[in-house]
């Protein structure tokens, strides 16, 4: 365990949003200090981190100074430019590593990787222009969803095609970016598994949570998910298989569709995940501490759930409900310290424990 970071060490985090903020809090509980790197000024994580660098992803001197000031580097979002990683990796360990980022940054490579592991994914085809969309629709049929291959989140960069005559409008919505057409999965429910893998290869999975989305944004995660015992085992095992295949270090979110005849992997996120926030109230070691333990080379918590929990995101004006929520015993409130409560902006979340 020569990799084991001692308290007092500095963890560098790329991205300073709410995930970076909660990672910093968890790291400080373990005696670490965090250095946040984020292009935007006053990121939410800045309030709780020892140091913040405000610089662009291509600012070589700033990246170099950041790397030299930390012991290990992790990230809260997956769209880090390749050249940035090249530089950082040459100076300090980056966990999770390159392969997980490369696979998950592009929906086509992600699906090819998952299918290569023998896991089910929605039927898909790369789309770059009208001709390839026509060919993809001929093969996959409708309903289908056209998604930008890269840089999509919270349902952004997606267009549904219920009928072939909507193809042109869907392609326009991609604004010329490479895309992927996905067949529509008729799912009964959506669940996700938050899973972790340590530097020694140990794997710990949390129970699957059941997710409800509104307008492409996660609204609630409920534990336990309504799964049969065999679906539960399948979900956890496939998450472990993905982590092992990537020689992964850290926490990953694996989003699944539960279809009548089995589980279909929607996407993977190589980081702590919104649908894992319930672990803050439901488990002795939550996903944020788990991720920090993994990247610091520490042993993992076991992921056992001691409570049923409903996590609800506070989106945009939901923030006005905080005074009322604060009066409810058993509701754990997490606010992200963001300014304007714009529609669709994640301002915080609450974990309601169910006895
Ligand atoms: P994504 O950004 O890919 O996670 O998609 C956001 C949400 O859109 C998902 O959580 C699903 O509710 C829905 N969705 C995405 N892809 C599909 C699909 N192939 N079939 C059915 N629903 C989908």
Task: Describe, in plain words, how this protein is organized in 3D.
- With 355 residues, this protein is an alpha+beta fold.
- It has three domains: 10-94, Rossmann fold (3-Layer(aba) Sandwich); 123-183, 2-Layer Sandwich (Dna Ligase, domain 1), CATH 3.30.1490.20; 189-354, ATP-grasp fold, B domain (D-amino Acid Aminotransferase, Chain A, domain 1, 2-Layer Sandwich), CATH 3.30.470.
- The chain is 28% helix and 29% strand.
- The chain contains eleven helices and 17 strands.
- The chain has helices spanning 18-29, 60-68, 82-89, 98-104, 107-116, 130-140, 167-173, 229-245, 279-282, 287-295, 322-326; strands at 10-14, 33-38, 51-54, 72-75, 124-127, 144-148, 158-161, 179-183, 187-197, 203-205, 209-214, 217-223, 250-259, 262-269, 308-315, 331-335, 346-354.
- Strands 9, 10, 11, 12, 13, 14, 15, 16 and 17 form a nine-stranded antiparallel beta sheet that branches.
- Strand 13 and strand 14 (262-269) form a beta hairpin.
- Helix 1 crosses helix 10 (287-295).
- The two termini are 39 Å apart.
- It binds adenosine monophosphate.
- The site of adenosine monophosphate (AMP) has 13 residues, from strand 14.
* Low-confidence runs of at least 5 consecutive residues: none
Order of helices and strands: EHEEHEHHHEHEEHEEEEEHEEHHEHEE
Q: What's the alpha carbon Rg, rounded to whole Å?
A: 20 Å
Bound molecules: adenosine monophosphate
The overall number of domains is 3
The largest β sheet comes out as:
9 strands, antiparallel
Annotated CATH topology of the largest domain: D-amino Acid Aminotransferase, Chain A, domain 1
How many E strands? 17
Helix segment tally: 11
CATH class of the largest domain: Alpha Beta
CATH hierarchy: architecture of the largest domain: 2-Layer Sandwich
Shape: globular
Strand content is 25-35%
Helix-and-strand structural type: alpha+beta
Average pLDDT across residues? 95
What percent of residues adopt helix (DSSP H or I)?
25-40%
CATH superfamily of the largest domain: ATP-grasp fold, B domain
Distance between the termini: 39 Å
């Amino acid at each position: 365990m020569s990799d084991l970071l001692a308290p007092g060490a500095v963890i560098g985090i790329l991205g300073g949003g709410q995930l970076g903020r909660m990672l910093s809090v968890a790291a400080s509980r373990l005696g670490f200090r965090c250095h946040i790197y984020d292009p935007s000024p006053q990121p939410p994580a800045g309030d709780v981190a020892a140091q913040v660098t405000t610089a662009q992803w291509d600012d070589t001197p700033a990246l170099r100074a950041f790397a030299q000031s930390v012991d290990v580097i992790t990230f809260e979002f997956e769209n880090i430019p390749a050249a940035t990683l090249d530089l950082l990796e040459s100076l300090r360990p980056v966990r999770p590593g390159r392969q997980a980022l490369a696979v998950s940054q592009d929906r086509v490579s992600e699906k090819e990787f998952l299918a290569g592991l023998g896991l089910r994914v929605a039927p898909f085809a790369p789309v770059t222009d009208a001709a390839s969309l026509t060919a993809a629709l001929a093969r996959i049929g409708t309903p289908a969803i056209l998604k930008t291959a890269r840089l999509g989140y919270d349902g952004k960069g997606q267009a549904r095609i219920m009928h072939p005559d909507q193809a042109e409008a869907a392609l326009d919505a991609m604004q010329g970016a490479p895309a992927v057409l996905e067949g529509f999965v008729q799912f009964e429910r959506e669940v996700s598994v938050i899973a972790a893998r340590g530097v020694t290869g140990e794997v710990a999975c949390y129970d699957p949570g059941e997710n409800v989305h509104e307008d492409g944004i996660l609204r609630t995660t409920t534990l336990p998910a309504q799964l049969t015992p065999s679906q539960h085992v399948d979900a956890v095992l496939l998450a472990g298989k993905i982590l092992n295949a990537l020689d992964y270090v850290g926490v990953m979110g694996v989003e699944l569709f539960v279809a009548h005849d089995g589980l279909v992997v929607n996407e993977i996120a190589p980081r702590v995940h919104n649908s894992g926030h319930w672990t803050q109230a439901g488990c002795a070691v939550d996903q944020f501490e788990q991720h920090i333990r993994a990247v610091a080379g520490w042993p993992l918590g076991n992921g056992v759930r001691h409570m049923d929990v409903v996590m609800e995101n506070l989106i945009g004006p939901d923030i006005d409900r905080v005074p009322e929520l604060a009066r409810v015993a058993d509701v754990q409130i997490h606010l992200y310290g963001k300014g304007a409560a714009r529609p669709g902006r994640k301002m915080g979340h609450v974990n309601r424990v169910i006895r």
